[in-house]
């Protein structure tokens, strides 16, 4: 039904081939031989020319979309900033993430048992929370962006004080700038005898990073991920920037989020980490991501604690997916299972249709070349 030959369409419409071909040419359709395949858009355009009303497949239009962003966000509550750590290999990203995880007041309470879910939240003594993305490297950042997922609020750029600005440091700066995400510089490994943070600063400034010390906006903190020195200052810098940028989200609307990672787990089936961006995700909710849907059976946080509700800024591992969704997929809530199933079916059909149109173009191209 997605493609039809010229002669079949002529038959359906009830016109002879010769005038039909003339009509097609007048509509700007270049190839009009009887076996040429027309796609559904071309076919319905032609049908309308003959005063026919092509049946528009209205079911295919059913999908889920994010809510419009309110003009005035100031009336909504603050949400935790979402932070990604970037930097050159071996400059200390993993060590820093591990060290930050341990600074959480809550982690201490439950004995610091953490599970890897691709993101974690740090609760500070000041009651403030920071959410860190724990997905490996620059590729994940780009992949998320490519899918249109604007997840990160702040990039922490780790530069080792004994090694200085390196190719992946510059790549990280470019990624952050392209995405319009502000940077906080963390000069790491200052415990080392050959640390030279002055050199790092000068080098960063030469590469367009406007540090506060020269009147710019970019904060710079000296840390040692290994000894824990300066981690409090780094968290403070993040909170300062977050307050300046005033990140807020609606809490009482249907949940919207993004898939951070997914996998199949023994005994649990398809699981995926959802970072809630707006609204509150609740146990029992129906959500859709890409071509998968889920009735939220079990939700747990990065400390392995089960949750009934996840407000904005919370990363949660969700059990109950029909398929494993893809990293970067947008998560949207459906009112019921019927709607979720319809949306997924439509999305699959859309993917199939796009594939058919591509195949059709290839077939037509081959025919053209044969002539
Ligand atoms: P990544 O590739 O950026 O994730 O870097 P890693 O976190 O794996 O760190 C690379 C190496 O640097 C490891 O041997 C770490 O122990 C070491 N390292 C990380 N941070 C520090 C630091 O603050 N001081 C020192 N002396 N070594 C560090
Ligand atoms: Mg690493």
From TrEMBL:
It is found in: Mitochondrion. GO terms for molecular function: GTP binding; GTPase activity; translation initiation factor activity. The keyword Protein biosynthesis applies. GO terms for cellular component: mitochondrion. Residues 78-247 form the Tr-type G domain. One of the essential components for the initiation of protein synthesis. Protects formylmethionyl-tRNA from spontaneous hydrolysis and promotes its binding to the 30S ribosomal subunits. Also involved in the hydrolysis of GTP during the formation of the 70S ribosomal complex. Belongs to the TRAFAC class translation factor GTPase superfamily. Classic translation factor GTPase family. IF-2 subfamily. This is Translation initiation factor IF-2, mitochondrial. It comes from Gigaspora rosea.
């Amino acid at each position: 039904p997605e493609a039809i030959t010229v002669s079949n369409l002529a038959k359906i419409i009830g016109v002879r081939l010769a005038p039909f071909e003339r009509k097609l040419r007048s509509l700007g359709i270049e190839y009009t031989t009887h076996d040429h395949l027309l796609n559904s858009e071309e076919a319905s355009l032609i049908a309308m020319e003959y005063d026919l009303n092509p049946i528009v497949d209205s079911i295919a239009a059913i999908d889920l979309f994010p809510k419009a962003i309110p003009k005035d966000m100031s009336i909504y509550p603050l949400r935790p900033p979402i932070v990604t750590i970037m930097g050159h290999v071996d400059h200390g990203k993993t060590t820093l993430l591990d060290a930050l995880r341990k600074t959480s007041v809550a982690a201490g309470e439950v004995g610091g048992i953490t599970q890897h879910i691709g993101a974690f939240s740090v609760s500070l003594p000041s009651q403030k929370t920071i959410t860190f993305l724990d997905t490996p490297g620059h590729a994940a950042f780009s992949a998320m962006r490519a899918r249109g997922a604007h997840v990160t609020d702040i990039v922490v750029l780790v530069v080792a004080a004994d090694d200085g600005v390196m190719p992946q440091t510059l790549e990280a700066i470019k990624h952050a700038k392209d995405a319009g995400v502000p940077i906080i510089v963390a000069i790491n490994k200052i415990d080392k005898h050959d640390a030279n943070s002055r050199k790092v600063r000068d080098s960063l400034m030469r590469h367009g990073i406007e540090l506060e010390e020269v009147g710019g906006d970019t904060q710079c903190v000296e840390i040692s991920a290994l000894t824990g020195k300066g981690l409090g200052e780094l968290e403070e810098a993040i909170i300062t920037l977050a307050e300046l940028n005033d990140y807020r989200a609606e809490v009482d609307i249907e949940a919207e989020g993004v898939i951070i990672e997914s996998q199949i787990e023994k005994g649990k089936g398809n699981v995926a980490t959802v970072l809630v961006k707006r609204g509150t995700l609740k146990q029992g909710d129906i959500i859709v991501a890409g071509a998968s849907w889920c009735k939220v059976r079990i939700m747990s946080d990065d400390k392995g604690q089960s949750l009934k509700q996840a407000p904005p800024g919370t990363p949660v591992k969700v059990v109950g997916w029909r398929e494993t969704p893809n990293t970067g997929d947008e998560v949207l809530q459906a009112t019921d299972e019927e709607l979720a199933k319809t949306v997924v079916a439509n999305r699959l059909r859309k993917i199939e249709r796009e594939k058919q149109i591509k195949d059709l173009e290839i077939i037509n191209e081959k025919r053209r070349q044969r002539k």
